[in-house]
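To fix ideas, we reproduce below a protein record of this kind.
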Amino acid sequence: MSPFKMHKLDPVFFVKELINASYYNLPRNFDFDGESHDFWELIYVDRGQIIVGSEDRNYLLMAGEMAFYTPGEFHSIHLCEEQPASIVVISFNSESATMDAFEHKILVLGDAEKQCLATIVEEAADTFLHFDNIPAAIDLERAEHPPFGSEQIIKNRLEELFIRIYRRRENISITSRTVPPSRLLRSSELVAQVQDYMSSHFADKLSLEVIAATHNISVAYLRRIFKLKAGLPVMTYLTKLRISEAKRLINEGKLNFTQIAEAVGYDNIYYFSSAFKKQTGMTLTEFSRSVRRDRL
């Protein structure tokens, strides 16, 4: 009988199987509508920002942050404002009861935790063949000659990562990261919506702030994507709509210039006259005369 007292080790986290451990560089046009599966998955943002979806809402995930998805939970990935991003996706099976602590969690990783994650990705890259480097296509196969003990290192570091996170018991409130549905629109679709809105409301007192708030986006984002997709600034586009309608009303000949100004969203006839000349190269009177000449 041994004189030494034996201590049976009691693991608090146990990773049973690995499905995926990959690093992805997401292009600007990446969009993943979502899936659900019977294993755990974590998503870590290494660079940029993404919007991660769950059953009933979407959340902003920033660089240095990680989100967990439980088995059976629907999840999707959308790029934030169509900017490229880099992410780590790890999918695994674990029956440890302590995993429940990570349900619906968004976490900021510390340096030690990031190192665990980096080791996992490095070992996985040498251990498995990645046939399809997009998150929706998981197709890992063991390399012909993986480094000795690499799979055990992956398992150990993943379990260490969970222990370190669990000890801190810290997380970001997911409600503070809720993203409105409009943020999930492709920028081209969003710009089309903004254009339709301005076409229907050009007579209203519109401003960048009003247009952005109506579509649940920031003024800075509105400015950037509209110029990118439409080729001109938002307010320039609005002015073109207004002047186009003003020309039509002048052509009808039923309203005077002051009435036309009010009808197309200008409460100041002098500002309207200036905008009209800048757009058409003619004063209101000159344009009106040209219309009458054309009728003769």
